[in-house]
Design goal:
UDP-n-acetylglucosamine1-carboxyvinyl-transferase, Chain, 4-stranded mixed sheet, 23 strands
Length: 449
């Protein structure tokens, strides 16, 4: 179990890039595998979660130019797609590691195959609920068995069924993973499969289905798919991950005298809600036209909106968030809590109960750490209330990530504005989404000395 010591920073300054978007990377591997012919993917995220997806599709008979462990950031991954009906059974248990996206989307895809598959994951993933995916898939005719071994390992057996039937399903909670799992199963099901969302979640699956020629329609919060299509091969450059950029956006705002440019970031409107939240939190000085947070050079790359993000240090004021915006920034709430702790006034997060079933209970975990930092916070069932703007800086300390990559990186941001060195324990988990995060943070900090 590795740890790292983070020292306070005088300022952060420089231009950086962040790794490829995790959500887009997963889907690029999946749809490249299901397409007809050869697809090429640049800037694929090399985090452990995406590598788990690569390994599983290779186990299912898909040829790729690289083994996961041999792929480097500058490589182009070439995927020899097998078509929608070309996957082959594996006699091995399909290990999703820590990746909920891998497991949930593949439960939908493999439910429609003419063979049986078995899934497991690491200790953290094996505790995370899968019922929200399994229940609608059962309505389509899918069959599952869930068993727990004495060791605690969970094995989910999917008994594939080529005769799934389309359903009209209203989701109780907005979730891109559940939506995507149902739509993937719907590519094979008889009749039309329709999914209604209660609020908009990230739309990377819908963009790819539409762009690759699936029989797919989407209107506002309703999405439908029919069987019988063939998916076209493609070339893609994966944009930088907005969720990874979020740590540096908050760091740039809270560390005094900072000036950052985060380049080539995906700014999909179903993903970038933190941008508007932070913009609203910035305190504008009277008479000043200087923007502390802004998008520049907006463009489209491989069907996804991309921009550079300029960040300048700023004073912040409190804000309350809840309702429909939560699915659009659910992954950024841990680092948002650090911004809220520096903001003047009381900030509230509501309607975010899903945080309790992430890699850790992120509500409980972040509330615990905010108290250690010297911040007043009230934990609530579906969120928390942060009493921000207290005397600066934070209290340094020793912090446990609980195996949660986003918690570890959020604490690193907080440590930059603490009153001394802070230790963050169990940081190996950061490799699931942001390999090289601490090296990049250290590089920016050293530039400020």
């Amino acid at each position: 179990m590795n740890s790292i010591t983070i020292h306070p920073a005088q300022k952060l300054e420089g231009a950086i890039t962040v790794p490829g978007d995790k959500s887009v990377s997963h889907r690029a591997v999946m749809f490249g595998s299901l397409a007809e012919g050869e697809s090429r993917v640049e800037n694929l995220l090399l985090g452990e979660d995406v590598l788990s997806t690569m390994r599983i599709f290779q186990q299912l008979g898909v040829r790729m130019s690289h083994k996961p462990e041999d792929l480097s950031p500058s490589d182009t991954l070439v995927i020899s797609g097998v078509g929608l009906d070309g996957l082959r059974p594996s006699d091995q248990i399909l290990d999703c590691g820590n990746s909920g996206t891998t497991m949930r989307l593949l439960l939908g895809l493999l439910a429609a195959q003419p063979f049986t598959s078995r899934f497991t994951g690491d200790a953290s993933l094996n505790r995370r609920p899968m019922e929200r995916v399994i229940e609608p898939l059962k309505k389509m005719g899918a069959q599952f068995e869930v068993n727990h071994e004495a060791s605690g390992r969970r094995i989910i057996t999917v008994k594939g069924n080529k005769n799934l039937k389309g359903i009209d399903y209203t989701m109780p909670v907005a979730s891109a993973q559940v939506k995507s799992a149902i739509l993937l199963a719907g590519l094979y099901a008889k009749g039309e499969t329709v999914v209604h969302e209660p609020a908009q979640s990230r739309d990377h699956t819908e963009r790819m289905l539409k762009g690759l020629g699936a029989f797919f329609k989407s209107r506002k919060l309703t999405h439908s798919v029919r069987p019988g299509s063939k998916l076209k091969n493609f070339q893609m450059r994966v944009p930088g991950d907005f969720s990874s950029a979020a740590f540096f956006m908050v760091a740039g705002l809270v560390v005094p005298h900072s000036k950052l440019l985060i380049q080539n970031v995906g700014v999909n409107p179903t993903r970038d809600a933190l941008m508007s939240v932070l913009e609203e939190m910035v305190v504008s000085k009277k008479g000043s036209k200087e923007k502390k947070l802004s998008l520049v050079d907006k463009r489209e790359v491989s069907g996804e909106p991309v921009a550079d993000i300029e960040v300048l240090s700023a004073d912040l004021k409190a804000i309350s968030i809840g309702g429909d915006i939560i699915p659009k920034l659910i992954d950024e709430i841990p680092v948002f809590s650090i911004a809220a702790a520096r903001a003047k006034g009381d900030s509230v997060v509501a309607d975010a109960k899903e945080l309790r079933v992430k890699e850790s209970d992120r509500i409980k975990t972040m509330c615990q750490h905010l108290k250690t930092l010297g911040v007043g916070v009230d934990e609530r069932e579906d969120g928390f209330k942060v009493h921000g703007g207290k005397p600066f800086p934070f209290k340094a300390g020793k912090f446990q990530s609980f195996g949660d990559h986003r918690v570890a990186m959020s604490l690193a941001v907080a440590a930059l504005v603490a009153d001394g060195p802070s230790v963050i324990e169990d940081i190996d988990c950061v490799a699931t989404s942001f390999p090289g995060f601490f090296d990049l943070l250290l590089k920016l900090s050293l530039k400020s000395v």
